[in-house]
Structures are given as C-alpha cells and as structure tokens.
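Appendix B, record 7
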Amino acid sequence: MFTGIVEEVGTVMRIQKGRHSAVLSIQAKTVLEDIKIGDSIAVNGVCLTVVSYDTTGFAADVMHETLDRSALVQLKSGSHVNLERAMPALGRFGGHIVAGHVDGVGTIVETRRDDTAVWYTVQAGPAVLRYVVEKGSIAIDGISLTVARVAQDSFSISAIPHTVQKTVLFERRKGDAVNLETDIIGKYVERLLSPAGGQKPQQRALTKEFLAECGF
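Structure tokens (predicted):
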C-alpha cells in the first residue's frame, strides 16, 4: 500500500521490451536506502516489484496487463517518473490509501496558473469518473491530490508549488497521458452494496432492513 506522497523523481535509464512485456531500469537514490529484491515501488502510481538493483537504481518487470492499462507504455529512456516505496507499518499516512493499481488513463486537457497554484484539468472515461467526487482524493501518476471540480467528462485539481516542483507534474502539458487511481474506499463500498452476482447496485432506500441484507 502507498499514500501518494512522492519520495523522489527518478529517471528511466533503459527499457527492455519483450513481445507483450518490458523491464524498466530506473535511476534513483532515496528509494534505494533500504531496498530488497521483491520490494514494491510505485512508479508513476503503478505498483512494480523490484527484480534487481545496484547502487544507482533498480529494475522492475512490467507485464502485459500493466502496459495495457497504464501510461507506462509511453515511457522512454530519459523519462522522469514519480517514485514511492510501500508504506511501512509505523509510517505517517500523509496522503490517502493508494493501492498502486491504476483504474485508467486520463488526458490533461488544460493547465492554468492561479496565483501560486497550478490547475490541471484531466479528461477521463465514465468508468473512472463514477468514483471521482469533489473534495475527494485521487492519485494522478501516483500523487495524492484533492479533486477541486468535477465535470461531465473531466475533473480538475489545484496543485501547490511544492507538489508541482517535487513531482513529474512540472513536466505535464496539455495532451499528456496520466495514470489515474480513484479512492479505493468508494469501490469497496459499491461492491459491498452490490448483489451477489456483482451487478451494479439498484437504487433503494437506506433502511434498517436494507443494511441487514448487506451484512451491517
């Protein structure tokens, strides 16, 4: 589990592409401090497993499913990536619960300055937007951010200068693809309120009987 608080920005040094997979070699510093084979590191919000490392960086496998459902497929040598180690049991919970399992890819359709802040508007599909709520949390490329506005086909966040400068947001421009992970709590609540077959929940009044049927 991660919290969406980026520890450092790494650099993709090499990409070894297979037929349906890839191996990323990433130059890093902070995340190497206590690294071990098998550790989980979020790379632009995608949970990857360390398969090798040295004093300058680490390598991780990227499977077919991950390439299909994330913006990692667009990385190239020299690309910058957000890095965060899995949260330790005694660590501070600075952001929100981030699983490192991307829900979809969004596209930045507008950026604008608002005094010191920078607004980013991200276009996304209905499968993602159904879980995006104003003042709720969302992870963009692994960064824990607060949703400021929600529209029919997009949402907006307002980032403080520190967040922009210390993450890959400083490079993001109109037309760029970004990894999106919505708040996991909303997805679990929807699942628990769904019928046994996994169908979408029907509109029903919130009664004592309804809560009992759902196990509460």
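Remarks on this record: Residues 33 and 55 are 9 Å apart (CA to CA). The radius of gyration is 18 Å.
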